[in-house]
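Q: Convert this sequence to structure tokens.
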Amino acid sequence: MFAEVIIPVPLADCYTYSVPADMENSVSAGVLVRVPFGKTKEFTGIVAKVMDNPPNFDGEIKPVMAVESNGPVALEIQMDLWRWIAEYYLTSVGTVFQAAFPAVLKEKRKKAAANRKQANKVCAIKDLNVLNEFQSKAYSDIRNLFLEKDVCLLNGVTASGKTEIYCHLIENSLSENRQALLLMPEIALTSQIMSRLKGFFGERLVVYHSRVSERERADLWKRMVDSGEPLVVLGVRSSVFLPFRNLGLVIVDEEHEPSYKQQEPAPRYNAKNVAIILARLHRAKVLFGSATPSLDSYYNAQCGKFGYAVLDKRFESTEQPDIIPVNVKELRRKKLMKSIFSPILIEKMNVALEKGGQILLFQNRRGFSPAVTCKVCDWTPRCKFCDISLSYHKHLSRLSCHYCGRVFKMPDKCPDCGNNDLQYSGFGTEKVEEEIRKLFPDASVDRMDSDTAKNKRSTEEIIARFENGETQILIGTQMISKGLDFAGVSLAGILNADSLMNQPDFRAYERTFQLIEQVAGRTGRRKVRGEIVLQSSRPDDPLIQAAISHNYYAMAEMQFEERKMFRYPPFYRIIRIDLKHRNESTVKDAANLLADILRRKLGDRVTGPDKPPTGKIRNYFIRRMLLKIENSAPVAPVRGIIIAAHAELVKNITFRYVSVIFDVDPVS
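A:
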């Protein structure tokens, strides 16, 4: 007897081992085994399949060393999903297995208790959960669309009550004795929505993300392997790897969020795409929900690939927030801009505080100042390990690199010319907080960014203080825009819209619109209409005008025109290839060679290689190229061309240790 085993290495998909006679009754698909690898290494792997005859193989077939689980710990349908991810995202099944499988389960598995409590009683929907007429229509539309489409997009404005629709759809799945998965883009969101869902689904609601303990995640995994009980899983992107036995529905909330895409390390999968394949394997349905859908999803809906439902009224019939543009360039010219806040924003903040309202201030940079400069010689501190200027963090009195995370001492004077008059350029959330405390010394102020919200507890505490009204002004980065529901917010300030638009990214305008609309959507969520003061040097820009009028469709049409012209998604598929090496000339030569090899087969679909905006990170020099592939082109032949090109590159001994990273459908 022989076994094909997936092991956690980024090489071949499976390795063949012989099964000793005394293990034959214990080895089957999904069982963990200990196997030798190479001359000295051992790995815990998972059996993909067993067979009676050995494959055609000239070398030695080593034996399985030990069986490490009492029965399967993964389902065959999961391994089918792993294979799809590996093929589509140009990685190995072993890499996917490493990311998908809880580490603690690679320990000896105890037999599951036979008397596991089954929660098969159907939960009844409570009477916040009766749908209004607009929600009812959207819900009915989705149900009808699911008769013909496997995937549906719900375009529902902020505060329209999409969660209540989700609850009804989940209940339908549970009533059919099937499981449901509700994906959220951020852990902070799962914490806020969990209490709401717990009231509807009780013990059938389970939570799965990286800040749940290893033991709790392992217990849930084993529970789901052993039983197909109808659970509701609330989680972030890694939840798509759970061992669902009878999945009926996947809901991807805030589907526009880039955090559904895994960046580092591999596999660089997008949970949205994986959710569709996961649902297809289970013959389940998928709902994407957002107030600002990604242009990719909206295009799929317009083409008829997805169903499309609209919810364009807020739950309590409040009007869409009023966005007030402010031309800060003109205010500075007239010397009316005394600080980073415009006079109208200060006035609006005073009024909101007097009325007992809460305020959100959005600035998409953390730290005190993005750059420090010598006034005499223009010296700017840069990271020794990355090709980027350092940001000043005043509370640490340190300079920080936002790429590698290293910190450096803030010099007392310019190291080049000795001048001790250093100036700070731009501003981050820390500077905003300092200025606000000076302007409103009696107000309670909090800040939510990656410096203050470093773990689940600190994030939850910041959110809870604001939710309970203890905090009057909350300053933050994108973290405060992501679907949080705050009842008391009447005013938001977007302090520098231009910095969002000026990113070197073909999605910059789409993202800017989404961020403006999402920040605006945190205001006026109950009875009173919200207000947003939007500070920009170019308020007449068509993108800003579309945001002011909440005109998603105008933004989409503008972007579709540009994307089609320059061969970007949703009309083309992008595969980004980054090459990294500690020697700049080596990586440059390797990138040029790889590009030449690819052009033989793909022609002008290959652009670059070029030096990216940040050309060195952690002492590795980077070169980047893009493959722009027509959506109509099949994936498998393109994958074969890329793999063959990489194999040809590493035949050259000079380039054998150049790291080559494939990112399929990058989000930035």
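Residues 108-127 have pLDDT under 50 and may be disordered.
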